[in-house]
Structure formats: C-alpha cells, structure tokens
Design a protein that fits this description.
Blueprint (H helix, E strand, L loop, with lengths): L4 H14 L4 E7 L5 E7 L4 E6 L8 H19 L8 H7 E6 L4 H9 L8 H8 L4 H4 L38 H13 L3 E7 L3 E3 L10 H12 L2 E2 L11 H9 L3 E6 L11 H17 L2
Parallel strand pairs: 3-4, 3-5, 5-8, 6-7
Antiparallel strand pairs: 1-2, 2-4, 6-8
The structure holds zinc ion (ZN).
C-alpha cells in the first residue's frame, strides 16, 4: 500500500471536517499545480513547523503526520493523555503547523509513475527508464531535489534533472521551495522539523549554524525515540530545509530520518515506528 496526494487530500478533508479547530490553508502550488496544504492546530504563541515528503519515495512521512494530527486532535477532545502528555496544555501554549507533503508531484511520480501531461515527461523517461520511477524518484516534477534547492550552501552538485540530488538551476528555483520559505518567513516559526526516511537519525546542525539549545533538544528527541543524534556532516549535506532554517534564523531545526530499511518504507511499518516519532513531536512541542 502507498500514500499519494489523493489519499492525503481525502484524509485532510475528513480531519478538518471532524475537528473544526484544525485550520487548513494552502501555502502555494507544486510545479504541476497541486496545492501545498498546511494545517494549524493550537492557539499558543510558540510555533512549531513540521513537514514531510520533501522526497517522493518518503510518503510514509506524510502518512505519519496525518495519523499524528488525528490522534492529537482526538486526545484534545477526549481529554485523554497522549503518550503521557496533557494535550490541552500543549494546545494552549503552542501552535503546530504541518505540511504533510511538500513534494506531492514527486510522491505521485514515485507511486503512480510519470504522468503524460508532465512537460518533462520524455526527458525524465529517457533519464530514468519508464519502469524505475517507483524505486528511485525523490525529486519534484521537473527533476529537482527540493531538499537541495534551499539557499544554504547551495551548489550545482549535478548538471541536469535527476531522480535525486539535482539542486536546480539556482537556490529557490522551485515553487515548492519558495512556498516553504515564504511561509516560514511570514509565520515567525520558532522550531522546524523536517521528516524524512530512513535511518533512525536526528540531524540538528548545518555548517556550524546551531542555535544555543539545538544539541540539547536533539538529545531529548533521541532519548524519547531511541534514534541517534548524528554528528555534523559539514560539506556532505547542503541546501536542505532545516539547513536553510538554521542558517537564516539560528533557531532549532531538525531533520528526522524515520524508520529503517529501503525507501519506500512499507506503510505497514508505521505501526512499528509511529510511537517513536510521535514522542519526538510531543517532546519538541514541550521544548518549544
Ligand atoms: Zn529525504
């Protein structure tokens, strides 16, 4: 089973219909015109922004975020503790913003194959092979890896569109990247978490740009999840979402690599890795 944009839209509609206090709004459009929808829950002043599926094969992160939002809302309404946390208290001291699928076009390509209406159809088929998209596709609809397209140590690591790691013609060349950047700037976000798969790792640094509490919070997230805080990798990583957030704001920003295995992780794995990632989010809200 897979989790694509249509399933996401159906889940978001159902969630917002059931819980009137969850606000949903678009922060922009993908290359192919899909909405990049954000949900907000909580009326507090401290703002956590979480996102998933920067990468096409990593749709398990979107499914995780939707399940978390559903359980968070249910715990609030039922006044039941959620993994020991008092959700009413978190709701009133924080605002959680979630974009479950930053790269809906990439997920669609990874799940359903390349769309004939994609203007880059021929070029992408020639470079990947028609039968391999579901094994390799991480980029957006024109072959740019959104998580190398942010303005943080950006460089042209590859010269042309590719299933992954092509950083684009210039920083923020892609509408998905710009949508996230503009949203974060106008919303005054205090902490950012980008969910990826896989590896069971937590990254908190970019090129020495760490906030005073980044490492301490990363250690707390590791303690509740069993994941490993991974030492700064310097030049090995660049142009990612949390890299840009750290560089621009010097506030805590994290990449979480959820689960273990080969992408795409089977959705059934969520039953196993749900709690460790839910605890990461609750701990982050607690430490905002
Ligand atoms: Zn990723």
């Amino acid at each position: 089973m897979e989790y694509d944009y249509d399933l996401l839209c159906a889940d978001m509609d159902a969630l917002c219909e059931r819980y009137g206090f969850i606000e949903a709004f678009s922060i922009g459009e993908s290359v192919m015109g899909r909405q990049l929808t954000c949900m907000r829950v909580g009326d507090g002043s401290r703002r956590l922004f979480i996102n998933g599926a920067h990468h096409g094969l990593e749709y398990i992160t979107s499914s995780f975020i939707m399940r978390f939002m559903k359980d968070y809302a249910a715990a609030l309404i039922d006044h039941t503790p959620f993994f020991g946390y008092d959700i009413s208290r978190l709701f009133h001291r924080s605002a959680l913003y979630a974009v479950p699928m930053v790269n809906p076009d990439g997920v669609d390509i990874a799940v359903n194959g390349i769309d004939i209406t994609n203007p880059f159809h021929q070029q992408l088929v020639a470079s990947v092979g028609i039968h391999s998209f579901h094994k390799v596709w991480q980029a957006n609809a024109r072959g740019v890896d959104i998580n190398h397209n942010y303005d943080a140590g950006w460089r042209a690591a590859m010269q042309s569109p590719s299933p992954s790691k092509y950083a684009g013609a210039y920083p923020e060349s892609e509408p998905e990247t710009r949508a996230v950047v503009e949203f974060v700037r106008r919303t005054n976000i205090d902490m950012l978490i980008a969910f990826h798969s896989q590896g069971g790792e937590i990254y908190y640094d970019f090129d020495g740009c760490v906030s005073p509490h980044s490492e301490e919070i990363a250690q707390k997230l590791a303690a509740v999840s069993g994941y490993t805080v991974t030492a700064p990798t310097g030049t090995a990583a660049f142009g990612g979402c949390k890299d840009w957030f750290l560089k621009e704001f010097a506030k805590p920003g994290f990449t979480i690599e959820m689960g273990h295995g080969t992408n795409p992780l089977p959705l059934e794995m969520l039953d196993t890795i749900y709690e460790e990632n839910a605890r990461i989010l609750l701990c982050a809200l607690e430490n905002l």
